Amino acid sequence: ISLKIMKISKGNPLQLSSLNHISLVCRSVEESTDFYQNILGFVPVRRPGSLNFDGAWLFGHGIGIHLLQSEDPENMPKKTVINPKDNHISFQCESMGLVEKRLADMGIDWVRQRVEEGGIHVDQLFFHDPDGFMVEICNCDNIPVVPLPEDFVRSCSRLNIQQQQIPSACCTTLID
């Protein structure tokens, strides 16, 4: 990315207002709807009748989830290992202990992780939906969101961050 492109993309060039929805391709719309409704508390909402493929729309926690029936469900990759570094959607919760207990009661396998930044701790639980898409539940609002200086060249490399001795909990765009 050139510096020129970075200057243009500062601020909110597309005048975005919020995240609207995510779309997930699934083996079974019914099974995924059940998971998002009964595990994560989403509510099914009406889809436009002009959509000529199987799917479901759900809404909750300020965002929509659009489930799309796979055209080839038998050949969808199956994820079995819970990897917190995989693509995921994250939800803030009020009680990590309650979430952990309820997941255990429902027989859902999860991986626990803890992030520490400047003496502040964030607990995270990661688990899969029926199709292997990662879901995270966390108390992430414990860590303040601190903008980085404009001229700071960043990478996601922990080594690079350590060399520059600048604490950072997030990755941002690298300027070439």
From TrEMBL:
Molecular-function GO term, any one: lyase activity
Pfam families for this protein: Glyoxalase (PF00903)
Coiled coil segments of this chain: none
Keyword Cytoplasm: no
Keyword Lyase recorded: yes
PANTHER family hit by this protein: F18B13.24 PROTEIN (PTHR46142:SF3), PTHR46142
UniProt name for this protein: Lactoylglutathione lyase
